[in-house]
Amino acid sequence: MKKIAANIVFGMVYLWSLWPLKIHYLFADILYFILYRIFKYRLTVVLTNISRSFPELKYSEVADIAKDFYHNLADVMVEGIWSVSASEKSIRNHTGFEGTEDLEKAYQSDRCTITLLAHFHNWEIWGGIPDLKKYYGINIPNSHFNFIYKRPENAIANDVMLRMRTCHHSVNFVETNTIARHILSDKTRKNIYFFACDQYPSANTHIDLTFLNQPTGMISGPGEIARKLKLGVGYWSVRREGRGKYIARYVHICDDASLHETGFVTSEYARLLEADIRSDKSRWLWSHKRWK
Fold this sequence. Notes:
By secondary structure, the protein is α/β, with parallel strands linked by helices. The strands form two sheets. The protein has a seven-stranded mixed beta sheet, sandwiched between helices. Strands 6-7 form a two-stranded antiparallel ribbon. Helix 1 packs parallel to helix 8, helix 2 packs across helix 4 and helix 3 crosses helix 4. The two termini are about 35 Å apart.
């Protein structure tokens, strides 16, 4: 029964995805109005997070950032649906890379690489990127990109989300609870593992630091994996060049995390992410209950 329900939901998503992107953005404008104006989805959380992160801002400025955030959230949601049936050429026209030398250098090393990313701009679209060499001139096989995800508790949601993420068969998706085993069994020593580390952490796998003017527990698991296995580490920085156009850049953090003290990787990630958020304040996922 759950499989049938998942098939029905995914079928509806696929049919919806066939509309041109311009139509999706019309839906996004409506969705923004529903989320922000009608239901006020987590609006208190959003305003509180922004105002505490930027105490120097006036309330009107905080409200403007919140408004732009809901526009961005709606865009990310419809772009995720659109990308399900989008062609490789279409996705290529909406994504790009810069400064790829460090990314290729990390891939050519004799160790796997941990790459830390965030829920910033559109974080889902990179799971459907077309052939890296053919479309971007990057000498890395797509099969060596591995995105780590946390399995939703709802079986139907997990099935639908995984099918949406893997419909292009572009990169690999690996569940969080299998990642250590996955890396240890990696024979190529060239895989790049992408972790989103900006969520609220569990009690046993975090480091306390100051982030956006607030005492913050930051997920430290990926950094500790990198230290124990002597892996290289990078940061996935993304900027927006117009609606639906995203440019990614790999920022090198270290070649061998074991040569650095505990917390170094996590602290560098927090520093780089904060700089990105400050440069484009409305594009982070402010609706997360990040500080509990």
